Amino acid sequence: MAKVTIPKKACAVNPLKMSQPLGASYAFLGMNRCMPVMHGSQGCTSFGLVVLVRHFREAIPLQTTAMNEATTIMGGMENIEKAILNIRSRAKPDLIAICSTGLTETKGDDVDGFLKLIRQRHPEIADTAIVYVSTPDYLGAFQDGWAKATTAIIETLVEPIQIRPVRSRQVAVLPGCHLTPRDIEEVREIVESFDLAPIFLPDVSGSLDGHIADAFSPTTIGGTTQADTRRLGASLATIAIGEQMRPAAAALEARAGVPYRVFDRLTGLDAMDQFIAHLAEISGTPVPEKWRRQRSQLQDAMLDGHFFFGGKKIAIGAEPDLLWTLGSLVTEMGATLHAAVTTTASPLLERLPANEVLIGDLEDLETGARGCDLLITHSHGRQAAARLAIPFHRAGLPLFDRLGAGDVLSVGYRGTKALIFTLGNMFLAEHEHHEVAPTQWALPEETLRAVEQARPAPPTTLAA
Amino acid sequence: MSALLNQKIQAVFDEPGCDKNQGKSEKERKKGCTKQLAPGAAAGGCAFDGAKIALQPIVDVAHLVHGPIACEGNSWDNRHALSSGPLTYRTGFTTDVNEMDVIYGGEKRLYKAIKEIIDKVDPPAVFVYQTCVTALIGDDIEAVCKAATAKFGKPVIPVNSPGFAGVKNLGNKLGAEALLDYVIGTEEPEFTTPYDINIIGEYNLSGELWQVKPLLDAMGVRVLSCISGDARYKEVAYSHRARAAMMVCSKAMINVARKMEERYDIPFFEGSFYGIGDISDSLREIARLLIQKGAPDELMARTEALIAAEEARAWARLEPYKQRLAGKRVLLITGGVKSWSVVAALQEVRIEIVGTSVKKSTKEDKEKIKEIMGLSDHDRAHMIDDMSPREMYAMLKEARADIMLSGGRSQFVALKAKMPWLDINQERHHAYAGYEGMVKLVEEIDKTLYNPVWEQVRKEAPWDAPVAEVAHG
Q1: How far is C-alpha B237 from the geometric centre of its chain's CA atoms?
Q2: Can you give the pLDDT at residue B350?
Q3: What is the spatial distance between Cα B237 and Cα B184, in angstroms, rounded to a whole number?
Q4: Cα–Cα distance measured from residue A367 to residue B300, given in angstroms and rounded to the nearest whole number
Q5: Which residues contact A252 (CB under 8 A, 6 or more apart)?
Q6: Chain A residues near residue B67 by CB distance under 8 angstroms
Q7: What is the ipTM of this complex?
Q8: Are A68 and B72 an interchain contact pair (Cβ–Cβ within 8 Å)?
Q9: Closest Cα in chain A, distance from residue B267 (Å)
Q10: C-alpha distance from B306 to closest chain A C-alpha (Å)
Q11: Nearest 5°: phi and psi at B299?
């Protein structure tokens, strides 16, 4: 339905997009006892680190190979080697996960080759898993980095299996980066209620759910464990959430023959119904009463909310999967997706219920959002919303000027309901700003003048 | 790296105003002060970051980052340098180069981007920042900027400080070099007075310049140019007409201060806006330099009157906190001059400093800390060179400090140890400069330390707590 347009601007103004290595690092943070490393100059890591710290309000383990001019020219093998040895001795992680950056990709470092040589030279590091993924900054966006990292983890660590256990209850769940830690917890609860045993890859709900650990750890605390990652191939099915996870699901099928299904979203009544039905089918377990009840609550919320969504014009700037999720929901509630801006290509974009989707920046979004009733994007959109003087809902990453970014729930029946209430309340609150006043329906000047002129002239004199 | 940039870096390292450099042999000096970073054990920003930090507070120019999305997309709008007017500096501009640009070169895209910005925003100038990738593929931003300046009749300033050139501090200096080469001295002010000063290296984070400016106004001193907090392009361009300069805190921009002294005969001193004693000294020094350059003597009398009144007012406001804060122990993790100026300030309210980082401090800074804290040469325990997060956590967990003051990136080390923490770095939202700021800092420390939340979060869950004796009545 939508036409996908890439504006011909040379200059991105107020970027919506964030880089691939940052997306990949975020995925690695969902691995237990992991140290993610950006192979690039120190600033690459520093900027990424600040984004994640501000968003989650958590300590973020993230390292750098600290490339400088000379090591870039000579090739980064020595820096990667030193980084691995340093991290191993200081942090003792189970997994060292390396992603490349624009700098090292431009130079053309053969990291896969380096890693082979480093393994040969240092047999003592055999007990540390290493995953590498190529993520140049000048290609794709955050979401692509996340997806590539997940695929690389599968291709490097999952053990290929020949015979599947017949009575496995294990399912692989591959969540896209648009799911918050709280969202993942919700999906886990739903999947487990069908007596299934899910393994999430990656799993930021363990590491970035905002809890206080008992002791200090230089690596991630929580997330997918090494053991779980390796045995993913023994799953009876893969559930991928978000179109971005299709290649990762396909990689797992190629490696271990696990059949998969991609759910493009888990927000919205119909989308959730399909998900629940699928779980009932693969598990052979009837749908628990709890979900039936929540479904009915969501229906009620949709009924209550539709009055306020109807006819509203909405502008959304988000990564493709999040844009799809939010754009679909607001359309289902009766609003129109008036302006849609995203960061990178996706097969979903053409299916969006909008006339046009721009692969652009926040300036494009701001232009498109003129005359809209609501702006939805990450925290960087706050200035645009202020200039446009329209309500602003924060969604995506980074979300640094509000508390609880990791705790936002918008999947499942319950999460959809919460999102409808949040957005609906913004419309309601906006309505309060324009209360009815006695002058509300005053007649226009010309009407009054016309009336004045049309009045017959009063009788000039009365008999005195 | 271009030969030009290499020369620049050599020149910056050869800074005669830097005692540390002068103490080195010629061979050592050639190596520069950039320590080889340890891969896998390094943290902190890069040279691009440093250049952007130094120049972004010039609020009416467009700051255009020439590179892939990571450099600007991941970093824009993360500091609170405030503006009293234009907001152009808060717009993120980047060429967001793609794979084709990497292969065929990004110069054309850069030129077009500059044109688009001038057409759309029409800023007084465009600053173009070089980054690693575009430097590596050989994009000549100097040439593009020169062509754009000629074509559009507007200053387009190249800032050649790609990330891999070195650390943040080097970037500060390279950013400053761009000002020296292309901006300072290119315009003339409408008028000058004998009371005109420059402030160098103050970025107006959270509006700190505005905490100090009323004091200068009261003295009758005019800030001709603040480089670069809340600055307009024009005011930096005519800053060479000031009579004296104050270099604030860190040695980030010493090259500007020293070269302006050399080129335009503007004497400068290094001072701090943090701490009651330090702010008073700085005001005195400003007055002294101006008088030395021909301002009437009575300036000093007015300055002393102002200091007396403001110090008394500040002390009166701090008095109630002395009792509450006496003996509280602070772990201070910050950089550069901030480490000693804040130490001095905290000691004024009898807070005990159990440790302060000196990682980014110069030899002089370290001497000052020793002097202020009354440490002997052997007492190194209080001066922390490089504390790992694990050590910080242990120190707080074992309650060897009552509160940690640091930057945002280490805050969660403290919070996870269930210990109070206060942001004194660039992401903070409170201003701590001048007499006003000192009172605010102490207020914030008090508020943080005495927040009832600490008691609650440290309490065990009732089912975990040892069974208490139940009184039977």
Answers
A1: 21
A2: 87
A3: 4
A4: 55
A5: A154, A158, A172, A174, A232, A233, A235, A238, A258, A260
A6: 102, 137
A7: 0.84
A8: no
A9: 35
A10: 39
A11: -55, -40
